[in-house]
Each structure stands twice: as C-alpha cells, then as structure tokens.
Write a structure and sequence with these properties.
This protein has 148 residues and is an all-beta fold. It has strands spanning 5-14, 19-26, 33-42, 52-59, 64-68, 71-72, 84-91, 95-104, 109-113, 120-122, 127-133, 139-147.
C-alpha cells in the first residue's frame, strides 16, 4: 500500500485565555500515523503580550470538539485517508505525554518539521493534540501534517 499524506488545518479560531486544543488527530484503529510537521500562527496586535505556549501532546479522551475534514497532501492517489480529526475544543480532552513544546510570540508563528531522527508516531486508535495556552485572546491558525 502506498503512503498517504494528509493535513489537518484550521484558521481564524480564537484561542481564549486558557488551554485550548486547536486540532486533534485520531489514528485509525488498524494502523499508526507518523507526524511530519506541525505549525501555528497568531494575529496578535499587541507586541507586549506574553508568548503563547504551544504543546503537541498525546490525548486520552476526545473532549468536545467539532469534526475536522482532513485533506490529502497528494491528491493523485485514489485511497482515502483513514485518520480522522476534530478541532476547536469547547471541553478539553484529557492530556498525557507532552511531546514538543514551544513559546510563540502572539504576532508571529512557527512551523516545526518532525524529522526521522526524532519521529512522532501516533499508535493505532490513539489521539494527538495541538494545544495552545494564551494569556490574551488572539486568533490562531494551526496545522498538523502526517503520513499513514
């Protein structure tokens, strides 16, 4: 079977002023996924606001979120993506292992490639979230790219 590449992305979502999962990927029950990149950007207008904590973490519950339609990074193949996703938590999922953390200024963004030297693998049926914790409400755009 050929590798399928997918991306989950959202934009223009308010962060709120507490921890908020922007995207959660759910690996299909029959196979793992490999994260290849994640990123966020913010449209803050005040350059003195505190940096925003961005965590990529394993999550053990679904929380309450809206369904997110994933897109194929390469649409030339006929196979559909088996991974599913949700976005914009209104009730936070339960988090467990934080795999990557970074602080991002609310007027900028960051894209983090995940290399084969330090891979992030999401086990079959497991969940991975991209969560932001902001001191001031700001709009966020976020994405997670993966292979299945």
């Amino acid at each position: 079977m050929a590798t399928r590449n997918g991306v989950g992305r959202i934009s223009g979502v308010a962060t709120g002023t507490s921890a908020k999962t922007m995207i959660q990927l759910i690996a299909a029950a029959n196979h793992a996924i490999k994260i290849t990149e994640f990123g966020v950007s913010f449209n803050g207008v005040n350059n003195t606001h505190e940096p925003i904590l961005v965590d990529l973490l394993r999550q053990t519950t679904a929380g309450t979120m809206s369904s997110l339609t994933l897109v194929k990074a390469d649409d030339s193949g006929g196979d559909t993506l088996d991974t599913t996703a949700q976005h914009t938590a209104t009730a936070e999922p339960t988090g467990s292992d934080v795999l990557r953390s970074l602080y991002v200024h609310p007027q900028t963004g960051a894209v983090v490639p995940v290399t084969d030297d330090a891979p992030i693998i999401v086990g079959a049926g497991d969940r991975l979230g991209l969560r932001v914790t902001a001191a001031n409400d700001v709009s966020c755009a976020a994405h997670i790219a993966f292979e299945e």
